[in-house]
TrEMBL record:
<keyword id="KW-0249">Electron transport</keyword>
<dbReference type="GO" id="GO:0033539">
    <property type="term" value="P:fatty acid beta-oxidation using acyl-CoA dehydrogenase"/>
</dbReference>
<dbReference type="InterPro" id="IPR014731">
    <property type="entry name" value="ETF_asu_C"/>
</dbReference>
<feature type="domain" description="Electron transfer flavoprotein alpha/beta-subunit N-terminal">
    <location>
        <begin position="68"/>
        <end position="250"/>
    </location>
</feature>
<dbReference type="GO" id="GO:0009055">
    <property type="term" value="F:electron transfer activity"/>
</dbReference>
<dbReference type="GO" id="GO:0045251">
    <property type="term" value="C:electron transfer flavoprotein complex"/>
</dbReference>
<dbReference type="Pfam" id="PF00766">
    <property type="entry name" value="ETF_alpha"/>
</dbReference>
<dbReference type="InterPro" id="IPR001308">
    <property type="entry name" value="ETF_a/FixB"/>
</dbReference>
<keyword id="KW-0813">Transport</keyword>
<keyword id="KW-0285">Flavoprotein</keyword>
<comment type="similarity">
    <text>Belongs to the ETF alpha-subunit/FixB family.</text>
</comment>
<feature type="binding site">
    <location>
        <begin position="326"/>
        <end position="333"/>
    </location>
    <ligand>
        <name>FAD</name>
    </ligand>
</feature>
<dbReference type="Pfam" id="PF01012">
    <property type="entry name" value="ETF"/>
</dbReference>
<dbReference type="GO" id="GO:0005759">
    <property type="term" value="C:mitochondrial matrix"/>
</dbReference>
<keyword id="KW-0274">FAD</keyword>
<keyword id="KW-0496">Mitochondrion</keyword>
<feature type="binding site">
    <location>
        <begin position="295"/>
        <end position="296"/>
    </location>
    <ligand>
        <name>FAD</name>
    </ligand>
</feature>
Length: 377
């Protein structure tokens, strides 16, 4: 900061000197032998160069002033991969990148993130208060960090965690949250989808602090190597709340890859006809080391639990391979998977909209095609 201020005042002095030179040149011309045109040109060019230099300096100064706080999502032991995608977005904004890790015993997660290249500082807050990572306890901690370090941007992944915490932070800061961004044009200009992914919106944010959730699939993960960020204690305070009390949680355990970070996904829809028939997809997924997903119709019908839902109101995924089985391809489903690198569709209806986004389509009865495919892998 001191360096930035020094640079700024040097820029101001330079600018003032250049403008003085322009004025002196005018005066000299007046008492000397220059023609009116020569005097005006010389003064103008000096003034222009002063302005151009000042603009360059202030751009540099502004870039130095950007500082982003990334709210890490983790389970105390390990970072969720989407935090690395959010870090990439933070780096794209430019300026300093700090990370806030809040949890109960989160030193391992803090150590992991301090190795990420381009992270300058890791703020760690360890307390039982942060059990369950509730928005009500994290918000005052984030606000205290923002107050102390004057971050210009606060970022979190657009997951259930980020979607719960950041709107509260934005409301407390009296700024508009900018949700689920898929692109960054500059420090004030962001890209996001609207109308279930059917239109792309570019917005310029004028709020002094930008509070942003980031769509993980739109940014590459920042490797956790090459850096050695300083770790320090986050601001302390009374972050207890009467508003909520975290009691317990039951996490579904699975040996399969997590849906949002899986390289391959086999996804089933209403065409599967029952939850038992999803076994066909699990067998195929086992061969591909894939995660299993589902359409909302399959979830609503009770075939599979709702944490498998992909789409506008489910999870957003972009694996290398997405196999849609017995899924029609409604826009709300496409909103969650159409950025997948290779899409394969198996559907008995040749007119099913899913074939419009599929790289490979198989018009067939899934009850024959899927076991055949599995047996050949
Ligand atoms: C606000 C809103 C949000 C929504 N959010 C989501 C969301 O997040 N995710 C989502 O998925 N949906 C969402 N929906 C619902 C969405 O509009 C569709 O209703 C849903 O995606 C349809 O699921 P489906 O493709 O499994 O079922 P269907 O549309 O019924 O398609 C079933 C497909 O299976 C095929 N089929 C049937 N039998 C066989 C067979 N034996 N072999 C091969 N193919 C077969 C059929 O040809 C058909 O194409 C949302 C809707 C709204 C209004």
């Amino acid at each position: 900061m001191v360096a930035s201020m020094l640079r700024s005042s040097t820029a101001d002095i330079n600018f003032t000197c250049k403008l003085c030179a322009a004025a002196v040149s005018l005066l000299l011309g007046r008492i000397g032998r220059w023609s009116g045109r020569e005097i005006a040109c010389s003064a103008l060019s000096l003034a222009r160069s002063a302005l151009a230099e000042r603009d360059n300096e202030s751009c540099f100064f502004l870039r130095r002033l950007q500082s982003t706080l990334v709210i890490a999502e983790h389970n105390n032991e390990v970072l969720l991969p989407v935090t690395q995608n959010t870090l990439s977005a933070a780096k794209k904004i430019g300026g300093d990148v700090s990370v806030l890790i809040a949890g109960t015993k989160c030193t391992p997660a803090a150590e992991a993130i301090s190795k990420a290249g381009g992270v300058s500082k890791v703020l760690v807050a360890e307390s039982d208060v942060f059990k369950g990572f509730t928005a009500e306890t994290l918000t005052p901690l984030i606000l205290a960090s923002q107050k102390q370090f004057k971050f210009t941007h606060i970022l979190a992944p657009a997951t259930a965690f980020g979607k719960s915490v950041l709107p509260r932070v934005a409301a407390k800061l009296d700024v508009s949250p900018i949700t689920d961004i898929i692109g960054i044009k500059d420090a004030n200009t962001f890209v996001r989808t609207i109308y279930a992914g059917n239109a792309i919106l570019t917005l310029e944010a004028k709020d002094p602090v930008k509070v942003i959730t980031v769509r993980g699939t739109a940014f590459p993960p920042l490797p956790l190597e090459g850096g050695s960020a300083a770790t320090e204690k986050a601001p302390e305070g009374d972050f207890k709340t009467d508003l909520v009390e975290w009691l317990s949680q039951e996490l579904s355990k699975s040996d399969r890859p997590e849906l949002t970070s899986a390289k391959a996904i086999v996804s089933g829809g209403r065409g599967l006809k029952s939850g038992d028939n999803f076994k066909l997809l699990y067998d195929l997924a086992d061969k591909l080391n894939a995660a299993v997903g589902a359409s909302r119709a399959a979830v609503d019908a009770g075939f599979v639990p709702n944490d498998l839902q992909i789409g506008q109101t489910g999870k957003i995924v972009a694996p290398d391979l997405y196999i849609a089985v017995g899924i029609s391809g409604a826009i709300q489903h496409l909103a969650g998977m159409k950025d997948s690198k290779t899409i394969v569709a198996i559907n008995k209806d040749p007119e099913a909209p899913i074939f419009q986004v599929a790289d490979y389509g198989l018009v067939a009865d899934l009850f024959k095609a899927v076991p055949e495919l599995t047996s050949k892998l």
